[in-house]
Input
Amino acid sequence: MQQDPTGPAGSPSSGPKGRPAGAATEVFLTLVVAGQLCGVPVLAVRDVLGPQAITPIPLAPPEVAGSLNLRGRIVTALDLRRRLGLPPREAGRAMSVVVEREDELYALLADAVGEVLPLPPVDRAPNPPTLDPLWRGVSQGVHRLGEKLLILLDVEQVLAIGA
Amino acid sequence: MRMDDLLADFLTETSEGLLALDAALVRLERAPQDAATLAEVFRIVHTIKGTCGFLGLARLERVAHAAETLLGRYRDGSRPVTQGGISLILAALDAIRGIVAGLEATGQEPPGEDAPLIARLDAEADGAPGADPGPGPAAAPPPEPDPSRLPAGGAPPQTIRVSVEVLEDLMMLVSELVLTRNQLLQLARSREDSPFAVPLQRLSHITTELQEGVMKTRMQPIGHAWAKLPRLVRDLGLELGKRIALEMRGAETELDRQVLELIKDPLTHMVRNSADHGLERPEERLAAGKPETGRITLDARHEGGHIVIEIGDDGRGLDAERIRQKALAQGLASEAELAGLPEREIQRFIFRPGFSTADAVTAVSGRGVGMDVVKTNMERIGGTIDIQAREGRGTRFVIKIPLTLAIVSALIVEAGGERFAVPQIGVVELVRVGGEGAARIEHIKEAPVLRLRDRLLPLIDLAVLLRLRTGAEAAGGPMEAAAGRFVVVTQVGAHVFGFIVDRVFDTEEIVVKPVAPILRQVTMFGGNTILGDGSVIMILDPNGIARATGLGADAAEAEAGREAVPQVGAMSEAGTALLLFRAGDATPKAVPLGLVARLESVESGRIEQVGGRPLVQYRGRLMPLLPLSGRWDPAAAPARQPVLVFGDGERCMGLMVEEILDVVETPLAIDSAGERPGYLGSIVVAGRVTELLDTAWWLREAGEDWFGGAATAGSGHRVLLVEDSGFFRNLVVPALSAAGYAVTAVPDAAEALRLRDAGCAFDIILSDITMPGMDGFAFARALRHAGAWRDLPLIALTSRDAPEDVERGREAGFTDYVAKFDRAGLLESLAQCLAAPVAA
Output
């Protein structure tokens, strides 16, 4: 596992075939944040929402976009662009991926939500040491996905703001 | 004896038995393992069965027998007690009652068929499946209890037990229902002749009634929270040698059980305080011309949507002068700040963290934690606490809390384009400003104020406070001149202030939901909620706003002060004077000014190097110099080297810095993240991150070589320093640390005793004499009296060193007596006391 993380051998096609421990393959929901492909474990996702009316919260940390009403529950929305230090969203409206932590719901705002993919851990590469420290803090590793690289978001860390 | 008499006796006995059985069975159901209850039930049923067999009452006997068999199984443990089983036995008892009623009426067993009931009882006893209780077709007609046989006073109120969980769930569901109702009403309002209007109206009424009904189920009399107080007060009276009468009024006043739980401890604490601090000893009372027995009163009543609780005593009241001195001594405020405060404000210092005026620490109170916690707890549930005290006459605390936490009525306002909810409890009045003929907002410098009925009301622009608009936009901007805005007048404690909003909408019933943990540091909001239109809205917390703007906790909003302009944004928290300087890198450094003996500017030419270490001749001695940047390069040194001198006249060391920047007064909120050796952590001074110097560390750096053998003298002996003056603590701790002692410093005797009781171990104790709370003499006596520290050497550190003081100290149990600023004397005394065994 250790020797091939970045090599071409770790291409996604070879992964699923030679997978003895199939149960270990986690399933991820992909999302796009300012062109960057990201993934969150599908088990952590409670809901995926289209554009929502979001009430801004004055004085909140900048990453907090506001709060929204999800069937009577108040959900705190975090803008992934701001969380990842990316330029603000120009136009169009954000999709929300709702996750839960300690009985609280949080919506992660992304530009688009993609598909659900099984990603075998074999194909996962550790964060390159040169990765932006901010990203290193929230990324659990990198997956090669065809032409693109997918960042595996660590939901716990993404939500660890203002602490 | 005739049969009729026997029968009459039997009937009386059986009726009594049946009554007892009902209660016992309910108990059994709750505690199925309770052998005593089970035995009692068995015995009663057995007696009934036995007697009716003797009287030839066949029907009764069969039913009772079946019930007894089942109970026997329960008793010998061959069958577990189940709810179904208990229900069956209750059904059997009902059947018995029916038959007994018939017997009474006619003298004969009424006809009827009990076979199905008996079959089910038998099945249950045999553990056969399908033995469910069911509504059991009791053969007899439903028994009509004979009124003459019921206990006098008629039937008790019918009650059932419901678990708190069920009530909480109901409450939550109703809360959601209220929200949905509000949403529907909002939708209907936008349409003129909706066919839903009428049914909606009805739904609305029913919802309101349901809400009130469910609220009632959660209500409990406040007396529940008071139940333990009489005993507590009695014990306290004995312990303190005081005679105390406790009067409680309004114990039946009901409030939400959640609120009740939250105020229970604070109330107990306050009663404790009254008994300990408030009431005088009997002889003092007599001398003051008061009855020997002190009175503590508790009074609860409803007022509007709130409950008001007053806790009063007829004791000594609050000594404003003493509070003033303590506040000064504990560094909570400066002399100048105190001078400008009215007495009422001075009294409010007791709500500040760490404040205690008890002269002596008793087992009861005076430990300096308390009223601040009470205040915080009250504020947390949206309540307020105020104090009215008259010296010599008594103290009265007035607490106002909402009846329930779940649903509050709130005013919806708009500021800076966003809507916010303001709980009605915080709103005193609403003033329209800026429009035609309305009051006008005026400005003193930039601070907005409103003249309201001869009062100058400090104002806060909500939009500016929440950074939705800048101050420049707000002040004198067109916003205010135009359509007009509103001032929401709010009271927090004794402070009245207003916040400016752009618009005011309706009031709405809202369900307060806590904010997400990642937003907790935004103290301006007490929660959030979902409005009728489905949008999320933040709930403003007037307490938080007051704190954030420096209005609530401490800023001087002198009641009569016409010139008193609120210092919006300026916290007037008591600060520590810090010397700011630069050394090494660009980050400013700071050290408490109290620790620096002198600031010197030394000519570089006079700095010599001995063994690679710079030093300078200073006041006839050699003073080691430590470069704060790590190394000192004589070539690159400036012509004059700024030096911070630490220590006393005989032993001192100098820290070489690059530039002295400033002296500022600021609260010490140290963030120890990013800590590195020589620094305690970082603080923010004037918007810049500043590193706080760890003086003890630097003294150690110098001490190894320059304080001679001193470093080994302490050899890690554990010293406890009890000293109320932060300044002096700052002096002694580094000096002793440098001499090799492990020093723990506490601000008062109470804290020291707490450490003792917590099992902390020390080798020697240094104590100040003049301290708030328990003084040094009392502390020494307390130590010598009992406890783990009984035989520890104890040194008095004092400025009072007259012979009679020294004598008094020895009597109290001090081992030695050292003048406060005699560093050498202290080190010598420490060494001596630790070397020689203590004379007990």
Notes: The interface with chain A takes residues 176, 179-180, 416, 418, 466-468, 513, 515-522, 524-525, 528-530, 534-538 of chain B (CB under 8 Å). Chain B has 26 helices and 34 strands. The domain at 223-402 of chain B is CATH 3.30.565.10 (Heat Shock Protein 90).
